[in-house]
């Protein structure tokens, strides 16, 4: 067994300041100095291989220069919504039994596409093509049901002998 006065983990050493602050490989560590009297030959704890941190504060965050918005993401949601509504509206208008949904989605495609185009001209968005395609497909979704009605009306007129 060990004596009650002996510390089996070694005595704590006071922190030692580095001789030269700097970068690169640390200088050779000083030989361990003895701990408290009556230690009984236990080795001193190992020195840190890295120099101590300096007392200087960290650098402030980098700010964008004056007049530059920097970091603002473009909001392409309206142009994309116009494109999606225009595509689904045109498909629904092609299918005769979904013409009502085609009309509603066509109107929404035109509205969202127009708002998306206005955001592009203001510089808030970058998807001019998607917004324009949403407007065009919204118009197609509005025109197709009218063409279907004209087609079926002509068929009924021919069938009725008028």
Structural descriptors:
mainly alpha; 0% strand; 162 residues
Give an overview in words:
- It is a single chain.
- It is built from three helices and no strands.
- The protein has helices spanning 77-94, 99-122, 128-160.
- α1 (77-94) packs parallel to α3 (128-160) and α2 (99-122) runs antiparallel to α3 (128-160).
- The longest helix has 33 residues, at 128-160.
Report the helical percentage. 40-55%
**N- to C-terminal distance:** 120 Å
Number of strands: 0
Order of helices and strands: HHH
Q: Characterize the biggest β-sheet.
A: none
Low-confidence stretches: none
Q: Could you say which overall geometry the principal axes of the C-alpha atoms support?
A: elongated
Number of helices: 3
What percentage of the residues does DSSP assign to strands (E)? Answer: under 5%
For the residues shown, what is the average pLDDT? 79
Report the structural category: mainly alpha
| Computed CA radius of gyration, to the nearest angstrom | 39 Å
